[in-house]
Amino acid sequence: MTFNLESFIGEYVTKRNASMFKPDIEVNQKTLSAAISGKSVLVIGGAGSIGSSFIRAILPFKPAELVVVDTNENALTELTRSLRSSAVLSSVVPDIYLPYPMDYSSVTFRRMFNHHKRSNGLRGFDIVANFSAHKHVRSEKDIYSVEALLRNNVISAKGLLDLLEQNPPEVYFCVSTDKAANPVNIMGASKRIMEDLIFSYSDVFPVKTARFANVAFSNGSLPAGFLDRINQRQPLSAPSDVKRYFVSPQESGQICMLSAMLGGNRNIFFPKLDEAQMTTFDKIAENLLTSMGYEIDYCSSDEEAIDKADKWTEGLPYPVHFSASDTSGEKAFEEFFVEGEAVDMERFSSLGVITDKQIPDRDKVIKLINTLDDAFESESCTKADIVKIIGQYLPNFEHIETGKSLDGKM
User: Roughly what angle, to the nearest 10 degrees, separates helices 249-262 and 49-58?
Assistant: First the structure.
């Protein structure tokens, strides 16, 4: 049986055969072209699932320069091979295409940025899009993992914004998450703080962001892990009670492009998805195995599934273990906006826009960053201390702590 991942995602995960954003892209072709054509573009975290999809979305609109920064050297290499080998995109990769394996908080990055000149003679870039982020709830385990998460998503982001303040771009885009709405984990809270941080610079240059759903089969996601487990003949494990919205990899880049190029200053874009389009991870696993021609062996524990997988051969039902979620930071449902946020549902056919965000008090955000920085310096600092500090800044932050991490599960 031939298995096509893109077709599977459309039929069983997003339940859409074409991109939900295609109509809005077609209607706004001229505006998008005017915003991107001939511009210098810097994409940070561009080798990841969303960043690379953003690159694929903007290339047909012919930017003059594309600089891609990512710490994953191998992923950058594969991105370049993929773009150069594409029948659709190889002809629109700009002459100035530079993939750099570097950390955006490094001295080397700062030097590269400051030495780069745009066509108008100014330093920096016309369009800057930042996709560098810790995006997994499993990133939150102990004080060290929490510090790494907050440094990448918030503390280092401030250094980038300070650099942009000296050399303002025409557009700055930074991806957020649906988990920033009423956050229950530190990752979601970090993105909510990030929104305040980036908007506090919006009086200097235009800032846009997007909250959106899980990207189906993105790097490191649970569904992508299903494919890895099957390739290694290992059992599948998934929560049976966690409902999630999904967009396709292609859609993830398109929503970022639409937000960055069509959004107003401090706008937050999100996809118009209704509850009927949500699905659970166990259902994805079931459909995946069935589509690949397997029967399913439902096990009562991880241990039973592991034991059966060790003895599994072709023709036998494939072992799985599905159970209720019991790990820290897992939200049972998803939401894109919260009570009190003004939402425009009329401007786009496939997108809603949060429009009423005011310029946050930058001093207050910086005070929080300094407080976090000081806390991390203490050997006695704990994850609970960080949750308390964040809770003082975000009164609606209700952290779900069970004492169990996703890293303790299959």
Answer: 60
132-173 pLDDT, tens digit each: 876 656 567 789 989 998 998 899 899 999 999 999 999 999
What sign results for the dihedral spanned by CA atoms 62, 205, 173, 128? positive
Q: What is the pLDDT of residues 29-81, one digit of tens each?
A: 999 999 999 999 999 999 999 999 999 999 999 999 999 999 999 999 999 99
Q: Vertex 256, ends 278 and 197: CA angle to 5°?
A: 100
Query: What's the Cα-to-Cα distance from 86 to each of 90, 98, 325, 372, rounded to whole Å?
Result: 5, 17, 40, 44
- Pairing relation of β-strands 268-271 and 351-354? antiparallel
Give the residue among 285, 269, 356 at the shortest CA–CA distance from 323.
285
Burial label for 51, CB within 10 Å (0-12, 13-18, 19+), is: buried
Rounded CA separation 264/232 (Å) = 47
Tabulate helix, strand, coil % of the chain (nearest 5).
45, 15, 40
